[in-house]
């Protein structure tokens, strides 16, 4: 029987699993991914990529191809409502449609909008287009990806996980030994059930039928593109979503709550009849491609980790799709987990760091779950855009865990997802500003993503010198940059294991609105940023005087060791 040894076995080749493989490879962690299906999803379950997730794809160098793959949806805003699609669109005036577009554009490009706080904005990319891009990148970057291969059994011990997988075409069995298993096996949650992990549950809130179909509606919608149309038709009530704004669409049809749908009951002919009624266009040629029955319900695992097994994506949390956040949460799960596994595997962090995955990501899932219930069937008025900068970012809250050091004796508390806090406080994403580095214009976010980074304000040279010494003594992957508003030749040098560089703050508005001000720092302050771009520690100003409690080397070393889980 064939056998494979790897560091991480990923079960599931959807958005969560492929993202996990990509972030693991970013940290040079060997991984094997198995997926029971023969190919990526053909059904566009998710479309929206919010700002923070866009930043993570940018970190991987994949934001441009993903954005291009969903470019046809770029003008799709607003939620018209009517008995048929034709009636819904006719009820929206050109002024209302323009206002819906302008509102979202202003939230992204306007003063105080997304692009003031992020190097990239939200975009749409259908899941069926996104996953092949992620798959190709994962394979290109060295992940061992095996489709049509099913995880059939596994056992874990103190040192790792032993798994049995089967090739679904040939029936050949294969053993895999891994240090860790990441269960990204979707809503079926087979690994979670095998582990005996319970869940907070809610619902069902409705039985749904997702119908993917081809129909040429280009003339009907041209100039009136929408995000989702609410169609309240007695023969077919549901939500119509565009895939390319011309001939590819998906209809989410509401069924009676008392009946559980089965695909066999809804033949292509029956679905086409319902679609004709809902669209309201005579003699329309409709080709039903796929029918997917599902139930809108809530399930958040009681824990996202058990031993050496971790849950990510729908395997960890499943919720009604009204806010369209499933892909956003899944990618952020993967990003949070990958650097922690990498650090522990490389011996640069203690195993206790892995417990912070559950401590940080589960509260986020619970917040989204609560909102999905509160906004159950929140299908807003015609032309209204129910958004905010915080919601378009989709990741501006605060983590609270042992890997985040509070600034006082009070532990940090997770912030609601509707609150956007990017002010440098520990547990939040490092503030964005455009800086010049080695002749290139980059974001402060581009300085992070691999190891730990200390970002010091203008007069923070002492912090940077200290990082170089701490990195050498601890064998830590530490880098330091001084963010200086004054132009000049970059001062870069290597000392020990750390790299000390200087970047020029190119923020508009001068020093008062520069990066240090955004980060809540005085000219002598500094942030210690984790590999996932989250602030782990902040010192607003360098302590004055002498003594061990004021020595930058000891302060940085103590903060670093606490974050990586030293007992």
Give a written overview of the molecule.
By secondary structure, the protein is of the alpha/beta class. It has three domains: 2-74 and 100-198 and 299-393, FAD/NAD(P)-binding domain (3-Layer(bba) Sandwich), CATH 3.50.50.60; 204-295, 2-Layer Sandwich (D-Amino Acid Oxidase, Chain A, domain 2), CATH 3.30.9; 434-563, Glutaredoxin, CATH 3.40.30. Helices cover 29% and strands 26% of the residues. It contains 16 helices and 25 strands. The strands form four sheets. Strands 1, 2, 6, 7, 8, 9, 15 and 16 form an eight-stranded mixed β-sheet that branches. Strands 18, 19, 20, 21, 22, 23, 24 and 25 form an eight-stranded mixed β-sheet that branches. A hairpin with a 2-residue loop joins strand 18 (434-437) and strand 19 (440-443). Helix 1 (15-26) runs parallel beside helix 7 (127-140), helix 1 runs parallel beside helix 11 and helix 11 (326-345) runs antiparallel to helix 12 (355-374). The longest helix has 20 residues, at 326-345. It is globular. 51% of the residues are buried. Mean pLDDT is 87; it is low at 376-386 and 489-498.
